């Protein structure tokens, strides 16, 4: 009935219907795995297993493992409790009414549903989980599905204000409850429960998280400037005319993007020569102006693609359990490539290299990287790695790996703009963006909190569509105010990129499947806005050496560039409540204005001495009411920091 073995620097525990393995995986970190099939196996998903020194104690009723500041207690009825510096931080709660119902499994269709429940801690706050467009900064009291959809990308990690991180190391579709009566992680199709607890302050946990899931590369300098995009440049000349005007206006343009349907057919991975006559000449001209080109790539493919039959016959496409393998309808039924298959990754990247990169294209935009499917029946999908409901979160990880492996062979560091991410995506150069969000002040406020939460999940490269993606009337006073406030936020985001499907006031000019929306360049939003937006782009340009330094730190240490206030002041209780201000790197505190008509805001300054940018006024710690007209923003710099000279 009860059996515990301590050997080889681990605890093995067995009981009826379960085998448990507990291992040290980093200093101050312990990994817990439970196998309902009662057989050990090694499947690390995206975790890079490590080891650490541990001490053990075996008593009649329980066993203990201590790793640095973290201790786990395993009782003979299966219950586990984690202690940090002697204080309880996670205590398992029975799944059933009686006291031996710890961890519950149900067998169905060859896999298990599984979950683990912990008692709720009074006063605890949670942050993380990737991109959740919930409008919440503190996630305590919330329940979330563990899945990817447009605007929502699950990175199953949370940081607790009690001083620990929790990695849910399971890519299955599921749910997490961070409620008042319990904390519960559950999935519907799996072969084990697998998670890691890391004890430490935000910096210590971020370092461990990067070691365990991968360090981001150092962002190439070209990506730290201003990115221009719109839905969409229909032709080579349209795109070049935009880049030329930026150059003539004296506005530095780091990147310009060719969005979707520049291609001949979904799945062809090449420019349509009718509208893009000489790609190499285009990229040569852009490079001469100091501008890089990024192109959009979708995972969709259909029978009209020249690559379809080759990929279909070699099982390089996502298959389905029942019905057609067409999982997305956009200009006809589309299948989707299976990037979990190494052969798919190698073949598709060879096409991307041949048709894009060899012609001077600099980066890739992996749209619909969840992947987008309709209806969202992950249990009907079959990937190379397994069932869709068991591995549904891992697709964007392999999608980014496809580009990383290919660019690495070319001797280059990739920057992959992607609409979804998973644990470890950062090590492949994933620049995550928050999807097709609305063009509203409410959405802007939501993005600030979203950016702060994904920042603690080990993914330092993040951005939004400046101005939002859909619903904008570029002629309205409301949007023209919004675009300025969003540009201000963009300056103090890891990447500054404008994009959006602006309302179409003109008529379709060409015989194209997807016509362009209204103009979306910085001169497109009113005569009075142009100099404001130009000055913001020029400020971003002056900040690039500072941003580059922060990107170096992000790569080496795993620290986010866009940081919640508690990251630097974990002992200041107020900092856990501040979802509309943050640190941009080590020295800049930014407080975005996110409400229409707002010209002042309360800002909390933690310990230290602070200088207001623009006025050079000195502020003491505490709560301050600060004003900022539409053409002004609220930012402070630590006294003595060199970056003040950029403002």
Helicity level: 10-25%
- Total strand segments: 40
pLDDT below 50 for ≥5 consecutive residues: which ranges? none
Q: By helix and strand content, what is the structural category?
A: alpha+beta
Estimate what percentage of residues fall within beta strands.
Answer: 25-35%
Distance between the termini: 68 Å
Q: What would you report as the Rg, rounded to the nearest angstrom?
A: 25 Å
Question: Can you describe this structure in just a few lines?
Answer:
The protein has 11 helices and 40 strands. It is α+β, with helices and mostly antiparallel strands and 647 residues long.
Provide structural commentary.
By secondary structure, the protein is an alpha+beta fold. Helices cover 21% and strands 28% of the residues. Strands 1-2-3-4-18-15-14-12 form an 8-stranded antiparallel beta sheet. An 8-stranded parallel beta sheet has the order 31-30-29-26-21-20-19-32. The longest helix has 29 residues, at 529-557. The protein is globular and about 80 Å long.
């Amino acid at each position: 009935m009860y059996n515990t073995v301590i050997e080889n620097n681990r605890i093995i525990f067995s009981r009826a219907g379960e085998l448990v393995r507990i291992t040290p995986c980093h200093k101050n970190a312990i990994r817990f795995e439970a196998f309902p099939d009662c057989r050990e196996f090694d499947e690390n998903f995206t975790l890079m297993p490590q080891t650490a020194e541990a001490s053990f104690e075996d008593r009649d009723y329980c066993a203990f493992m201590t790793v640095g500041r973290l201790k786990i207690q395993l009782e003979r009825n299966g219950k586990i409790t984690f202690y940090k510096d002697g204080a309880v931080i996670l205590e398992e709660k029975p799944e059933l009414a009686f006291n031996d119902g710890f961890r519950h499994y149900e067998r169905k269709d060859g896999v298990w549903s599984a979950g683990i429940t912990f008692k709720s801690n009074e006063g605890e706050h949670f942050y993380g989980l990737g991109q959740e467009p919930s409008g919440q900064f503190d996630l305590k009291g919330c329940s979330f599905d563990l899945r990817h959809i447009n605007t929502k990308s699950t990175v199953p990690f949370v940081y607790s204000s009690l001083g620990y991180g929790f990695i849910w190391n399971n890519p299955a579709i599921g749910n997490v409850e961070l409620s008042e009566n319990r904390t519960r992680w559950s999935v519907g199709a799996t072969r084990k429960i697998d998670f890691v607890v890391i004890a430490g302050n935000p910096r210590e946990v971020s370092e461990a998280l990067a070691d365990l899931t991968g360090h981001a590369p150092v962002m190439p300098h070209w990506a730290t400037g201003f990115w221009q995009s719109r839905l969409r440049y229909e032709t080579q000349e349209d795109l070049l005319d935009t880049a030329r005007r930026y150059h003539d206006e004296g506005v530095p343009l780091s990147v310009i993007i060719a969005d979707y349907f520049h291609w001949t057919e979904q799945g062809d991975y090449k420019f349509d020569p009718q509208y893009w006559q000489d790609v190499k000449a285009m990229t040569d001209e852009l490079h001469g102006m100091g501008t890089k080109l990024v192109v959009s790539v979708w995972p969709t493919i259909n029978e009209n693609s020249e690559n379809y039959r080759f990929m279909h016959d070699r099982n390089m496409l996502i298959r389905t359990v029942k019905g057609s393998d067409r999982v997305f309808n956009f200009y006809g039924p589309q299948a989707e490539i299976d990037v979990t298959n190494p052969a798919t990754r190698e073949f598709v990247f060879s096409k991307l290299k041949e048709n894009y990169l060899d012609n001077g294209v600099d980066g890739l935009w992996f749209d619909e990287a969840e992947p987008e499917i309709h209806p969202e029946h992950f249990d009907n999908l079959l990937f190379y790695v397994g069932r869709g409901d068991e591995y549904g979160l891992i697709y964007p990880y392999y999608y980014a790996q496809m580009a990383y492996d290919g660019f690495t062979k070319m001797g280059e560091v990739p920057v992959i703009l992607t609409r979804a991410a998973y644990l470890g995506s950062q090590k492949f150069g994933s620049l995550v963006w928050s999807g097709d969000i609305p063009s509203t002040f409410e959405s802007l406020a939501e993005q600030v909190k979203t950016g702060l939460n994904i920042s603690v999940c080990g993914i330092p490269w993040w951005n939004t569509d400046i101005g939002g993606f859909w619903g904008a009337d570029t002629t309205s006073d409301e949007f023209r105010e919004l675009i300025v406030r969003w540009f201000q936020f963009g300056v103090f985001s890891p990447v500054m990129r404008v994009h959006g499907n602006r309302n179409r006031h003109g008529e379709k000019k060409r015989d194209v499947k997807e016509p362009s929306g209204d103009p979306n360049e910085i001169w497109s939003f009113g005569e009075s806005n142009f100099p404001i937006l130009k000055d913001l782009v020029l400020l971003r340009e002056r900040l690039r050496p500072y941003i580059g330094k922060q990107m170096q730190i992000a790569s080496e240490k795993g620290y986010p560039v866009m940081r919640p206030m508690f990251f630097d002041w974990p002992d200041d209780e107020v900092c856990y409540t501040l979802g509309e201000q943050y640190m941009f790197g080590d020295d800049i505190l930014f407080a975005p204005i996110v409400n229409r008509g707002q010209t002042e805001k309360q800002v909390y300054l933690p310990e230290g001495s602070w200088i207001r940018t623009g006025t050079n006024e000195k502020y003491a710690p505490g709560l301050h009411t600060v004003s900022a007209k539409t053409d002004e923003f609220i930012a402070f710099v630590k006294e003595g920091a060199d970056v003040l000279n950029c403002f």
